Amino acid sequence: MQYLPDVGELVLCAFLPNGEEEGFVLGAFYSEADLPLSADKEEYVLKIPGGVCISVHRTNRTIQMIDSYGSKMIWADGDITFKS
Questions:
Q1: How big is the chain by its Cα radius of gyration, in Å?
Q2: Which 3-state string (H, E, C) describes 21-65?
């Protein structure tokens, strides 16, 4: 999976010994400006640029997809629910 941080997002970097010109972004971290997308530790949330958000809940085994227009698709207990 390829994931690039958003412009302005706080990240942790490691630089090679020959200067700040070459290095790696090790990952982003949460702050008051960049809060987690969910407070539930059992929920994995992926926010996709363009307004789509996908969440997977590990305990109750549900998947939700929500777009920026408010449309929602939910997979739970063998059923799929659409709202538009």
A1: 17
A2: CCEEEEEECCCCCCCCCCCCCCEEEEEECCCEEEEEECCCCEEEE
* Both tokens assigned to 46: 């992926």
Please choose, from the candidates 54, 51, 74, the residue with its C-alpha nearest in 3D space to the C-alpha of residue 62.
74
pLDDT digits (tens, 9 = 90+) for 25-40: 898 888 888 888 888 9
Contact yes or no for 29/38 (Cβ under 8 A): no
| Residues constituting the chain | 84
CB atoms within 10 A of CB 45: 14
Model confidence over 34-66: pLDDT tens digits? Answer: 888 888 999 999 888 888 999 999 999 899 999
pTM over 0.70: no
